[in-house]
TrEMBL record:
CDD domains reported in the protein's UniProt record: ENDO3c
Domain HhH-GPD: 112-287
Entry's Gene Ontology molecular function annotations: class I DNA-(apurinic or apyrimidinic site) endonuclease activity; damaged DNA binding; oxidized purine nucleobase lesion DNA N-glycosylase activity
Gene3D superfamilies: 3.30.310.260, Helix-hairpin-Helix base-excision DNA repair enzymes (C-terminal), Hypothetical protein, domain 2
Name this polypeptide is given: DNA-(apurinic or apyrimidinic site) lyase
Catalytic activity: 2'-deoxyribonucleotide-(2'-deoxyribose 5'-phosphate)-2'-deoxyribonucleotide-DNA = a 3'-end 2'-deoxyribonucleotide-(2,3-dehydro-2,3-deoxyribose 5'-phosphate)-DNA + a 5'-end 5'-phospho-2'-deoxyribonucleoside-DNA + H(+)
Enzyme Commission number: 4.2.99.18
InterPro entries per record: DNA_glycosylase, HhH-GPD_domain, HhH_base_excis_C, OGG_N, Oxidative_DNA_repair_enzyme
Biological source species: Cuneatibacter caecimuris
Gene Ontology terms: biological process: base-excision repair; nucleotide-excision repair
Family: Belongs to the type-1 OGG1 family.
Top EC class for this record: lyase
Keywords: DNA damage, DNA repair, Glycosidase, Hydrolase, Lyase, Multifunctional enzyme
Length: 293
């Protein structure tokens, strides 16, 4: 077990921020479980003190996974003092960190996420893991019993299109089957994907069936840790229109197809290189406000 003091990290906020679906609350208060690859973690929080229940050899992995070496205070301190909305969003969600997740898992996850609620996404992912992943039960981590790894391309490719349709994946089933075939054949080269910058990764990902701009942007932000990525979904569109469009002259002079792209570029240029962190604060804040109404 390792014990660390960490600022700007909150398990509940990070787990419910919409970027990960295999970090779940345990029965004990302030305790979460997380699965990434073939690793299992039990993690407890008391204030800024965190207890990592895992083998010592796994700590470098989890340190990287939770992005613990990055100074999120610096991101928050960089916010324009005139931007009352973003200041409030960052204050509310200051415990969120952009996780360094597996790109393959994020590809499948965000193909599934289209037109699905967070509970539905979690349920579908766990079903895929139970059916096609590997058991994680280990003697030195008895709590890992009942957990499964996320299936590799080869494991998931064992599922037929009919198998995937039976899981109620709907139109997403054909996209998942296609992307598995592409990954197993080498057409989708996951190692090559790691070498690309944000712009290159977006272009590469959108060549594949089922991956549009929004899904590609989520993969870049949450799977490749390109924290300049700024996914624009329904929640973010709502924020941009209400909080930023009225004062953005440039956005009024471009075609409709480039409206949100222009808004993001004009209003978040000062956060070049880490705009995705601001997006996460905004997304979490807006969704939380909506649920409290």
């Amino acid at each position: 077990m390792a014990e660390l003091m960490i600022k700007n990290f909150d398990l509940s906020q990070t787990a419910s921020s919409g970027q990960c679906f295999r970090m779940l609350p345990a029965t004990e208060t302030g305790v979460y479980t997380a699965v990434s690859g073939c690793r299992f973690l039990k993690l407890a929080q008391i204030g800024q003190c965190f207890h990592f229940f895992c083998p010592d050899d796994d700590m470098p992995f989890w340190n990287n996974y939770f992005d613990l070496d990055t100074d999120y205070t610096a991101f928050i301190d960089s916010i324009d003092p005139k931007d009352a909305y973003l200041l409030a969003a960052a204050d509310f969600g200051s415990g969120i960190r952009i996780l360094r997740q597996d790109p393959w898992e994020m590809i499948i996850t965000f193909i599934i996420s289209q037109q699905k609620t967070i509970p539905a996404i979690r349920s579908l992912i766990e079903t895929l893991c139970r059916r096609y992943g590997s058991p994680l039960a280990q003697e030195n981590q008895p709590e890992s019993a009942g957990f499964f790894s996320f299936p590799s391309p080869e494991q998931l490719n064992l599922a037929s299109l009919d198998d995937l349709l039976e899981l109620k994946l709907g139109y997403r089933a054909k996209y998942i089957k296609s992307i598995c075939t592409d990954a197993c054949s080498g057409k989708l080269n996951l190692q090559y994907l790691h070498t690309l910058n944000h712009t290159e990764a977006m272009e590469y990902l959108m060549q594949f069936s089922g991956i549009g701009e929004k899904v590609a942007s989520c993969i870049c932000l949450y799977g490749l840790h390109h924290i300049s990525a700024f996914p624009v979904d329904t929640w973010i569109k709502k924020i941009l229109l209400r909080e930023y469009a009225p004062g953005c002259r440039a956005a009024k002079k471009v075609p409709a197809a480039r409206f949100y792209e222009t808004l993001v570029r004009e209003c978040f240029s000062r956060y070049q290189g880490y705009a995705g962190v601001m997006q996460q604060y905004m997304f979490f804040y807006e969704r939380s406000r909506s649920s409290r109404k």
